[in-house]
Amino acid sequence: MGRSCPAPFPSLGRPPIFPPAMLKVTRVAPDSLGAELGLQAGTELLTVNGRELEDFLDWEFLTADDAFLLHARLPDGEEIEYDIERPEGLPMGVGVEPPRIRRCANRCDFCFVDGLPQGLRENLYIRDDDYRLSFKYGNFATLTNLKPRDVERIIEYRLSPLYVSVHATDPVVRRWLLRNPLAPDILEQLRRFAGHGLQFHTQVVMSPGVNDGPVLERTLADLWAFGSSVLSVSVVPVGLTTFSKHHLVREPTRDECRAALGLLEAAARRSRAERGISWALGADELYLRADLPLPPPEWYDGFEQVENGVGSVRFLQQRIRDAGEGMADWRGRRIGVCTGASMAGLMPQVLTPLAERTGARFELLALPNSLFGETVTCAGLLPGRAFQDALAGRPDLDLALIPGEALNDDHVFVDDLALADLAAAVPVEVRASYCFTDALDTPPRP
Ligand code: SF4
Predict the structure, then answer these.
(1) Average pLDDT over the chain, rounded to whole?
(2) Which of 17, 47, 173, 345 is deepest in the core (most CB within 10 A)?
(3) Which of 216-220, 399-403, 439-443 has the lowest mean pLDDT?
(4) Whose Cα sits closest to atom 3 in ligand 1?
(5) pLDDT at 21 over 80
(6) Looking at residue 283, what DSSP letter applies?
(7) pLDDT tens, 25-38?
(8) How far is Cα 337 from Cα 400, in angstroms, rounded to an integer?
(9) Is residue 162 over pLDDT 50?
(10) Ligand 1 centroid, distance to 30 Cα (angstroms)
(11) Least confident of 23-37, 188-202, 214-228, 369-383
(12) 360 Cβ partners below 8 Å, 6+ apart?
């Protein structure tokens, strides 16, 4: 309970059973309103306008007004109530602790967590499914673990667009895919949110024989019926590792990928004619498995789902074109580009314009995944040792580029090798990169 709310058991004179919610400050930017008020790391934010703060969403939304009351407890225990009038344009500049991640209520056969080998760091085994991260970072959420209070918050704070894993709009098929007999009807959920003006980017992870074919056709039709509330739908082929439940799920064949692309392209043609956007998009991986060429960059509607592997190649090509003079002169240099086997087939389309821009010679190093098995071909899951093995005998390279997606926020690979340790172990300069232009803007080390 917040300080300005009545205590839950006032007549008993006891403390509440649960400690009151509060949010800890982790950092305060200099020259911000937070610094001016004397907030500091360790300050406990108790209430805003009398409302308790559960997580960063409460903090960001309740302090968005020009004027509000903040009740806080400083690290020395002093409690202060601030009556804040925010000068125009002055940010609060207060970072708060990350939320406790919401656990997933499903058990999909294709779940990445089931495909992990034993012995990795603990947090990799967490199945997260969190609408807050969907709004903040574009993580896809199934919305199967929402409590009534979460639904209220989504509506009150207008968390839009949300990134939603739909998979199938047929509730029976969806429950089967999620292995969750209690999964609510996704159409009803989306309808309720859409009624409050919220919008969604949606995805279908395609499990062949389950949610492709007529089920996919129905899913596309149902989502199309939402009009502008559904901003996009992507189809991503299911990806498995050596450790996945292969007796329950398999990867799609070339023809199954082609059939899915056929449905997507029919939906996209209609959308282009009626709404001027493609709307229905296939992941690069789907085109690769279908052995079909990628669509042009304008097909991807501003690359809203690029983080989901939808339009990555075209996006990179565009970044390289746009970088102009922003990249250093790499003439005569030799650069190794490390990636997973899946991107290797598409990478020449990116490296050719990159070589023209920079003058460098690029060598593609398509690395097998020594941790998850050779069926895992995406760059983001390559372990640090795979890079180390590939680069150990390569003093001939002037630079090696490592995919940024293979590192976590602490610059550590999935097998716990740190980027700094990799750099110290190999005879070539190593840089992490998300889009090439971010790593080639400064000249090579002398
Ligand atoms: S929704 Fe499915 S794939 Fe995602 S974390 Fe949960 S079980 Fe895994």
Answers:
(1) 90
(2) 47
(3) 439-443
(4) 111
(5) no
(6) -
(7) 999 999 899 999 99
(8) 6
(9) yes
(10) 40
(11) 369-383
(12) 330, 331, 332, 333, 334, 335, 354, 440
Determine the pLDDT at residue 272.
Answer: 97
Query: Using CA positions, which residue lies closest to atom 4 of ligand 1?
Result: 111
Amino acid sitting at position 316: L
| Joined tokens for residue 73 | 């407890």
How far away, in angstroms, is 375 Cα from ligand 1 center? 20
Burial class from Cβ neighbours inside 10 Å (0-12, 13-18, 19+) for residue 367 reads: buried
Pocket-testing residue among 108, 116, 164, 182, ligand 1, by greatest number of atoms within 8 A of Cβ:
108
How many Cα atoms sit within 13 Å of 22 on the Cβ side? 19
Distance from the alpha carbon of residue 290 to the mean position of ligand 1, in angstroms? 25
Token pair 């240099």 is found at: 333
Least confident of 120-124, 293-297, 330-334: 120-124
Instruction: Look up residue 96 and give its two tokens.
Output: 């708060």
Q: Which atom of ligand 1 is nearest to the CA of 142?
A: 1
Does 130 sit in the ligand 1 pocket, CB within 6 Å? no
The per-residue DSSP string of 69-133 comes to EEEEE-TTS-EEEEEEEPPTT----EEEPPPPPPBP----TT-TTTTSPTTS-GGGG--B--HHH
Helix (H/G/I), strand (E/B), else coil: 433: strand
CA-based torsion, 411, 413, 418, 421: positive or negative = negative
> Which regions of 179-333 does DSSP assign to beta strands (E)?
200-206, 230-237, 280-282
Specify the ligand 1 atom closest to the Cα of 106: 7
CA 94/CA 76 separation, integer angstroms: 18
Residue 227: other Cβ atoms inside 10 A: 9
For ligand 1, is residue 107 a contact (CB within 6 Å)? yes
Residues in the chain, total: 446
Pairwise pLDDT comparison (124 vs 54), residue with the higher score: 54
The reported pTM is: 0.87
